[in-house]
Structures are given as C-alpha cells and as structure tokens.
Amino acid sequence: MKKIHFILLFCIALLLSITKAQSEPVVVIVSANSPINSLDKEQVASLFLGKTTNFPNGSSAQPIEQTDSTAAHEEFHKSVTEKTAKQLKSYWSKMVFSGKASAPQEASSNAELLKLLSSNPAMIGYIDKSAVDKSVKIIFTP
Amino acid sequence: MKKLLTLVSLSALITSHAYALDLGHDVTLKGFGTLGIVNSSTGNADFTANDFSQPKGAGRTESLSLNPDSRLGLQVDWQATQKLSITSQAVSKQGPDNSWIPDLQLAFAKYKLLSNLDIRAGRIRPALFMMSDYLDMYYANPWIRPPTELYNMAPIANHMEGVDFLYRPETGPVSWLIQPFYGYSQLPISRNRTVTENDILGINISANIDDFTLRGGYTHFLMTWADPNYNNKALPILSQLSAVDPAVLAQTSNLSLTNRDLNIASLGANWDNGNYFVMGELGKKWSTNSTVLDQYSGYFSLGAHLDKFTPYFSFSATKTTNATSFTGGTGPYAPISNEVLTEILSNFYLNQNTKTLGVRYDFYKNLDLKVQWDRIDTNTQNGQAGTGGGLLNNQTNDFANKNQAIDLFSVACDFIF
Fold first, then answer.
1. Residue B177 is part of which domain span?
2. What's the gap in Å between the CA of B134 and the closest CA on chain A?
3. Is the CB of B134 less than 8 angstroms away from the CB of A98?
4. What does the domain layout of chain A look like in residue ranges?
5. Which residues does B178 contact at the CB level (< 8 Å), separation at least 6?
6. What's the CATH number where B44 sits?
7. pTM score
8. What chain A residue is nearest to B27 in terms of C-alpha separation?
9. B48 and which of A141, B57, B166, B269 could share a cystine (Cβ 3.0–4.6 Å)?
10. pLDDT tens digits along A71-124
11. What is d(CA B138, CA B157) in angstroms, rounded to the nearest whole number?
12. ipTM summary value
C-alpha cells in the first residue's frame, strides 16, 4: 500500500466517523403502559403525516413532534417519512389551512417529550436513543 | 389598507415565536399572509390575480399595486371532542367592492365517522383543482401566485355552503384521498355582479405514492349571473332583435345568464423529491350555453430546492373554443343581428399564456421572500377586434383589438404561523 492510498483511506474513514457521530440514532417510543409493542416504518410514517389517526389495533393515536431545528427531527424524517423540513412545512400548511387535518403537537425538549408520553398511552414520539428512560418503550428503530 | 399592513406586520412578529398559538381549551389560532407588490409594463389594462373578485390591479389603475397578491388570513380551530372539531377562517384581501373587509372563507364542523372517514358541513371550499383548498395561502406555493389561467376558470373557487367527505383508504404503498362534495354558493364578484351556483356536485380524488401525487376531479353545477351591465345594455337590444329576427329569438336561451350548466374536469400531478419538483395541471370547462367559456387551461412548472433557494420556471395557458362570431341572422335585420351577436360573443374569448421565472428564498423559519417575472401574451381570434384582451381587467377601449405582450415584475413576502 502506497502512502497516498493510506492517506486517502484514512481520510475516508475519518469522514465516515464524523458523519456517523453527527447523526445519533433516533427511536420511536410510546408510554411504557401502552399496549403497542411494535410498528413498522409505514405505520409510523402514516401517523406522523396525519394520514391515519389510529394505531393498527384501532385505538386513537396522537403523534408528538420534535421542533424542526433538532437533529432528531431531521434524522427521523429523513429515514421514516422521507421528507425534508421544507417539504414538511409545505405539506402541513396545506393540510392545516385547507381544514383537512391539524398538525401534530410539538415537544420543546427530550424531557418534555418523555413527560408527555409517560402520562398518555395514546401518544407516540421519537427521541435520541441515548435519551430513552424507563417511562417509555421503543416500538420502532429506523 | 393600513389596517391590513399593521396586521401583516403584527402577524410576522408572532411568526418568529410559534407555529400556532395555543389559546387553551383546545382552541388554536393560526394564520397566513402575503405582502406582495406588482409592477406591470402596460398602462392600458390591470393585471389581477383573480379576474372575478378583484376590481383593481397593477397597470392601468396604478403602476405599483399591492392589490393582486396581498392578503391576510386567520384561522381558529376548536377540537371540541376527539371526533368533532370546528374550523373558521377569515381572509382579508381586496374584495369585489374594493374594500378589505375580511371574508369568512371557511366555517365548518368536521366529524370523524370512521378512523379514515371525515364529514365536513358548513362553509367549505369546493376542491375543483389541486390548490383550490388553500388558494389564498401563497406560502404553500413555490411561485408567488397560483397560475391565473387555470385558477380563474371558475369563480366558485372561493367557497360554498355544503357538505363533503374526506375518505382516506390505503392500498399498499398508495394513500388515497376521495372527496365527494355537494353545495350551493352565492358570491358577489367585481363590477356589481353576483354569481349564484346551484347543485354544485363534484369529486376530488388523489393518490399519493412517496414523492408523487396524481389528482383528478370533476364538478358540475348550474350557474346564474346577475350582471347589471349585460341586463341593461345587451338584453334590451337582444329582445328588440328577437321580435324581428327569429334567428336571434332562437339564440335567447343560448345567450341567457341563468341556470347555465357547467362542467369542469381536471387532472394534475406533482412530484417533489426534496431536491427537484415538477408539477402540472390541465383543466377543461364546458357547457351547452354560449355565455359560458368552453375552455382548456393548464400549466407546467419545474424547479429545484437549493437549500434555502427555490428557483422555478412555469408556463401556463388558457384557450377558449367558443364561437366568437355570429352569421346566422335572417330577414331584413340580418346584418344588425350578426353585428350585435358577434359583439357579445367576442367577449367570450380569453386566449393568453404566461411564462414565469422566479426564485423563492426561505430566509427565516416560517417566512419566505419571492421575486418573480411574468411575461403574459394575449391573442386575438384571427385578428378579430375585441377578442385580444386575455384575462386582463379594466381594459381601455382598443386594448382587446390586438395581441398584447405584458411584463410583470412582482415581489412578495409570505408567512404562516
């Protein structure tokens, strides 16, 4: 291996590690008391786009968003709804002002999200994996 | 006008803090608005964003005008129970009487019948085209305003009293929206006219797979215009001619403005993958009556999302296929019959197209700035006098006698909260 190859590989590895460190994995969670144990990607995306307002078992579901400036918001929507912040804003403004659906409630922090979810089994949210505690359970990992 | 500007700036302030204001007791306040200014290269006619409802625009009335695009909307939603919600939306913009008094655009109750089926009753918007549901909210569009050639096809785009169903089944990867609607509408429009639409019956169907949405719709209604100008000027002459020329008499119901049957069909598609978008719509309007335009309209648009900038291009056009002349007069008064009827029919020709180039800049959370150039070309029917005015308003007497080319330059700032 020539030196130049090593330097190239090193740089690629470094780049990979940087990008990996930047995007902390997010997980989809519900209250630990919820009867829901797992959902698939399409089901989660449907709930967060307001296409359905019920869990597959028929019970009512209430998605909670993170504010769109958070890394979790970007990571979740990139991998689950596959929409950019700009697309989401346009999507929800159309839904809301045509009177077809209302946009999800927003939590301002991980702590607020956990507090909301732990007290209401109808709620579903997403959070940085490292922030998960015992009050909630993971039902989907993108 | 001043009030509107104060409201716009106030709302812009609110925007920097939240997306919607929670007023407690499950009531939220939301809003949208546009502050836009338009300059037109002609002084012989007005450009308006809506031919039916805006009496004054940019061009002949004033060279720089806030009228075509500026508006402010406020919406209050009350989630009464898990299944029942109430929505009302008032919009302030230049009205048919040139006032800026807010008009109630939405006022309905929505009830969830099944997990994927809602019914709405009250004042709703008939979903004629892809953007009819949120026509006043410019923030949702890449361009400054929805293409006027298509969105001026029917004055009922505003609102109606009625019922609709929102049915959202999912079949595999496809999410559907099936929205049948029925209603009645009576709206004042510019130049002291009133348009009444009875038995509005239509359906809007859209299918969405990932980044792609396909939409189709069909609407039928009976339209009556109360038009003092037509009633006072054209009708007396027509009735005199009918007495002496049976060929004119035979045209009476054809030239009536009462209970004209009207059909609108449309097909649209939208693809947006977050980096690029391509969209287009085609609409067709037809009627058995000569005083309703038989018309094709459509647009095609594409653009790129470059971080905060969205450059775009579009082309939109409308083509009418009505007869613009009459040669069937009989008896000694035939030449007069032909001239009068031809003059009336020459008004039912609105061919024009617009090329649009612009850029949207999302410079702050829920605020955007758009700069746009439009080139409008109007066409006469084979040079026939009176047929060349396109969709422009307040034309000087000879404006419609030849093809016209107009440049518009517009700047607008939109927000939502």
1. 2-416
2. 5
3. yes
4. 24-140
5. B165, B167, B168, B169, B203, B204, B205
6. 2.40.160.10
7. 0.87
8. A102
9. B57
10. 899 999 999 999 988 889 999 999 999 999 888 988 988 999 999 999 899 999
11. 15
12. 0.86
